[in-house]
Amino acid sequence: MLNEFKTFIAKGNVMDMAVGIIIGAAFTGIVQSLVGDLINPVIGLITGGIDFSNLFVNLGAGEFTSLAAAKEAGAPVIAYGSFLTAVINFLIIAWVVFLLVKAVNRLKDAAKKQEAAAPAAPKGPTQEELLTQIRDALVAK
Q1: Could you tell me which residues come within 8 angstroms of residue 58 by beta carbon, excluding any fewer than 6 positions away?
Q2: CATH of 2-140, one of 3.30.1280, 1.10.1200, 3.30.720, 1.10.150
Q3: For the range 24-28, what are the long-range contacts, defined as Cβ-Cβ under 8 Å and sequence gap of 24 or more?
Q4: Model's pTM, two decimal places?
Q5: Interval 94-139: pLDDT, tens
Q6: Domain boundaries, the chain
Q7: Alpha-carbon distance 78 to 121, whole Å?
Q8: How far apart are the first and last CA of the chain?
Q9: How far is residue 59's CA from residue 6's CA, in Å, rounded to a whole number?
Q10: Distance between CA 137 and CA 2 in Å, rounded?
């Protein structure tokens, strides 16, 4: 059973998946910064200064000026701005993954074309040709 597990773990697909998960986890911080520091301010500028992360609907009593204040007071809220930010994050990640997969597929196709275009190694003599050469060499002696 241990050997089967080792074989399973050593397979290329499992290792590729593990690397993908690790890279994806590390990539999350970059995407969050991209969305929070670059994209949301531009969208906020276009929409007149709306900060998506602070958009919420208060379901309880009281008035709150920010989502943080409402959460601190323990008020029930629907934080749809956080959801919009998560959707934007997802779309950016999906787009980047699409571009990466497209680039990898393009590289694979180029490698296949290059491999197919490579000249084949010259063929050696067939068994019949070798036997003919040996016979002729024996007859000549």
Answers
A1: 64, 70, 75, 76, 77
A2: 1.10.1200
A3: 24/93, 27/93, 27/96, 28/93
A4: 0.55
A5: 887 788 789 988 999 988 888 777 776 677 888 888 889 888 888 8
A6: 2-140
A7: 68
A8: 65
A9: 53
A10: 60
